[in-house]
Amino acid sequence: MASRDAVKLVKVSKVYKMGRVYVVGLRNVSISFAKGEFTSVVGPSGSGKTTMMNLIGGLDRPTTGHIYIDGVDTVYLSDDELTVLRRTKIGFIFQFFNLIPTLNAMENVMLPMALAGRYSREERKRRALMLLRLVGLGHRARHKPDQMSGGERQRVAIARALANNPTIVLADEPTGNLDSKTGRSVVELMQKLNRERGVTFIIVTHDMEVADMTKRIVQVRDGRIVSDDHRR
Ligand SMILES: Nc1ncnc2c1ncn2[C@@H]1O[C@H](COP(=O)(O)OP(=O)(O)OP(=O)(O)O)[C@@H](O)[C@H]1O
Ligand SMILES: [Mg+2]
């Protein structure tokens, strides 16, 4: 059965081992993100924001606790199963875009569909073009990343994140490499996708102006959630 929660963390801790030293990334965190939510995660450098995103995104595994993605407890998945879940249910947006420089915008958006073994090649093309139009970049489909502005690159990354119609999109500092006006327009695009298409976002940011554009602000400090503010 479909879950109401896109993501649920139950008593999740992450301890990194550095030689003989243990570094705590996350301490006993429990939180859920419902489908359709538009959340920002804020907190000082080193507080555990990226750690939390990497765990939710299945890029890393918790030391203890359970992470449910669309109702599935990921603790019990093999590495291969976790990879499949990540490819089909999670979209990622990064600070430095992480587009493949040798591929054009359309091919970058098609890639996650190919990796997930989804859709025929024709459908992948059609979907990629549809998604690029959705982010206002239909006219840049043949451009490679170095032939686009920072804001355009991030919009391609947003289209790519939506390629497999994910349960949740994770964005770690998506405006960190953009000027404030461009950053604002990128977050406005995410707002629109949330409002009009129900896309669920978690956005990590240092920028309070960006956080203010979201409906829920989660504050992380020293590996713990210290506030969780639902607004509007
Ligand atoms: N792979 C790793 N190995 C060891 N320690 C790590 C690793 N990743 C993160 N840490 C440590 O875990 C803590 C949380 O790091 P994290 O990257 O989650 O912080 P952050 O909130 O994303 O910070 P920033 O705002 O600077 O990106 C920090 O003390 C960090 O040094
Ligand atoms: Mg970080």
SSE blueprint:
Elements: E1 5-18, E2 21-34, E3 38-42, H1 49-56, E4 64-69, E5 72-73, H2 79-89, E6 90-94, H3 105-115, H4 121-134, H5 150-161, E7 168-172, H6 180-197, E8 201-204, H7 208-211, E9 216-221, E10 224-230
Parallel strand pairs: 3-8, 3-9, 6-7, 7-8
Antiparallel strand pairs: 1-2, 1-4, 4-5, 9-10
Helix pairs in contact: 3-4, 3-5, 4-5, 5-6
Residues 16, 18, 23, 25, 43, 45-51 line the site of adenosine-5'-triphosphate (ATP).
Please summarize what this structure is.
With 232 residues, the chain is α/β, with parallel strands linked by helices. It is built from 7 helices and 10 strands.
Corresponding CATH architecture: 3-Layer(aba) Sandwich
Task: Give the assembly state of these chains.
Answer: single chain
- Percentage of residues in strands: 25-35%
User: Structural class of the helix and strand makeup?
Assistant: alpha/beta
Q: Note the overall shape.
A: globular
* Cross-sheet strand order for the largest sheet: 6-7-8-3-9-10
Uncertain spans:
none
Q: What integer value in Å does the Rg equal?
A: 17 Å
Bound molecules: adenosine-5'-triphosphate, magnesium ion
Q: What is the mean pLDDT?
A: 96
Number of strands: 10
User: How many individual domains?
Assistant: 1
Distance between the termini: 29 Å
Count up the helices.
Answer: 7
Q: What is the chain-wise order of helices and strands? A: EEEHEEHEHHHEHEHEE
CATH topology: Rossmann fold
In the CATH hierarchy, what is the class? Alpha Beta
Largest sheet: 6 strands, mixed
